[in-house]
Design goal:
Blueprint lengths: L4 E4 L8 E6 L7 E2 L4 H5 L19 E4 L4 E4 L2 E2 H7 L2 H10 L5 H12 L8 H5 L8 H15 L9 H27 L12 H10 L10 H13 L7 H10 L5 H12 L7 H15 L5 H9 L20 H16 L6 H14 L2 H5 L7 H11 L6 H21 L29
Antiparallel strand pairs: 1-2, 2-3, 4-5, 5-6
The protein binds s-citryldethia Coenzyme A.
S-citryldethia Coenzyme A binds next to loops.
């Protein structure tokens, strides 16, 4: 606990209130206002939660000013270059990187749960072929609660662990199925002799007529994309998962809620929106048109935003964007696409924006979504699938955060209050008397 306090005084003469100030291991302190309403009959007011800590967590730490991101204390730069996605899954779920023995148990456990129930394919048939993959994924992930009734009890830690393995293992299969369905190709079954990322790429790009030998550089890039998207503190979709699970619903339903929230262009949908933005600028004339686009992005009267730029927490360069740009160089180099016009356009746009006071004064820098689309497009991933891959990678973070919340003996159902600005009490007027 703490002996540090914060005192709130009221200009209307109400008695002042003293609140404890709680320190984290690193990062901002919090003022513990849980007693505020009981003592004052007043709420705090913080739409968008710019100054609100919704929970305590030991999973991910972000220093937005320094541009620092730690998963369980490990810098993202080290994990992205010295670990792999399943090691990061073990780290996020259980608190540390796996030992050799733990790795020998965890990896096959995931590998052996990559197949989905055969009935799942009939669920897909209900969609049009041109359905957005995130609509399909929202449906499929929610439907998993109907296929795995033996692991839906949120209060049972063992069942939560089984559903965690099932979700991590099956998301690549489901995303690949959503893709194959959209292009009218048969589904490819996962293989147990492939790594996590290679298995996904094979399910995406192999056909019964021709196998797919994943390129090691591209597999490494895909695995790194998974690592970079695995968790990110209390972002909108993670907060959605926590709120959804706080009602006691099953893990699959809570993760489906996270998928739905991530879809938005202000959040995980930004990678798709960013690539479409680059395509639009390219169609209109490329680098020569950047100035015109930037002017629109700065114009309050236009709804245009520089997608892939800005962040609620990062007021410096998103460390994931730096790593994603490095991955761009690696992948484009490996594929002989070093002169990829979209990559060059993205770098030119970034340079011009970072020299423009509008972006500099608002501390708007590239975020994880700015370069991820270019890498995924080079690998052969269709634009509409980018956010589904973000959801695939973030599933482990959502589960880890859900587990942390449910394991906290103090957790309650989330139920914020409001500042009411509507009509005061009034009586119903008979229709004949309504003016
Ligand atoms: C993700 O939270 C997370 O951690 C999310 C995420 C994760 O891993 O989970 O990191 C993933 O969602 C990354 C963000 C992806 N979204 C985008 O790239 C979409 C474009 N970015 C913006 O929509 C915006 O920057 C947000 C939504 C990301 C952040 O919005 P905030 O924190 O609410 O900031 P704001 O909208 O209040 O912006 C502050 C100012 C405003 O101008 P003023 O009112 O001060 O004049 O900056 C402007 C905004 O208009 N601004 C932009 C801009 N982003 C902010 N102007 C032009 N282009 C932009 N991209």
């Amino acid at each position: 606990m703490t002996d540090r306090t914060a005192t709130v005084t009221f200009s209307d003469g109400s008695p002042s209130i003293v609140f404890p100030v709680l320190p984290g291991t690193i990062g901002p302190d919090v003022i513990d206002i849980r007693a505020l309403y009981g003592k004052t009959g007043k709420f705090t007011y913080d739409p968008g939660f710019l100054s609100t800590a919704s929970c305590s967590s030991a999973i991910t730490y972000i220093d937005g000013d320094k541009g620092e991101l730690l998963y369980r204390g490990y810098p993202i730069e080290e994990l992205a270059t010295r670990s792999d996605y399943l090691e990061v899954c073990h780290l996020l779920l259980y608190g540390d990187l796996p030992t050799a023995d733990q790795k020998a148990r965890f990896y096959p456990l995931v590998t052996r749960h990559t197949m989905v129930n055969e009935q799942m394919q009939f669920f897909l048939r209900g969609f049009r072929r041109d359905a957005h993959p995130m609509a399909v994924m929202t449906g499929l992930v929610g439907a998993m609660s109907a296929f795995y009734p033996d692991s839906i009890n949120l209060q049972d830690a063992h069942q939560r662990d089984i559903s965690a393995i099932r979700l991590i293992a099956k998301m690549p299969t489901l995303v690949a199925m959503a893709y194959k369905y959209s292009v009218g190709q048969p589904y490819m079954y996962p293989r147990n002799d492939q790594s996590y990322a290679a298995n996904f790429m094979r399910m995406m790009f192999a056909t019964p007529c021709e196998d797919y030998k994943p390129n090691d550089v591209l597999v490494r890039a895909m695995d790194r994309i998974f690592i970079l998207h695995a968790d990110h503190e209390q972002n909108a979709s993670t907060s959605t998962v926590r709120m959804c699970a706080s009602s006691g619903t099953n893990p699959f339903a809570a993760i489906a809620a996270g998928v739905a929230c991530l879809w938005g262009p202000a959040h995980g949908g930004a990678n798709e929106a960013c690539l479409n933005m680059l395509y639009d600028i390219q169609r209109q004339g490329g680098v020569a048109k950047i100035g015109e686009f930037i002017a629109k992005a700065k114009d309050k009267n236009s709804s245009v935003k520089l997608m892939g730029f800005g962040h609620r927490v990062y007021k410096n360069y998103d460390p994931r964007a730096k790593l994603m740009r490095e991955t761009c160089y690696e992948v484009l180099g490996e594929l002989g696409l070093g002169d990829d016009p979209l990559f060059k356009l993205a770098m030119a746009l970034e340079k011009i924006a970072l020299e423009d006071d509008y972006f500099v004064s608002r501390k708007l820098y590239p975020n994880v979504d700015y370069y991820s689309g270019i890498v995924q497009k080079a690998i052969g991933i269709p634009v509409q699938l980018f956010t589904a891959i973000f959801a695939l990678a973030r599933t482990v973070g959502w589960i880890a955060q859900l587990n942390e919340m449910v394991s906290d003996p103090e957790y309650k159902i989330g139920r914020p209050r409001q500042l009411y600005t509507g009509a005061t009490r009034r009586e119903v007027v008979p229709l004949a008397q309504r003016g």
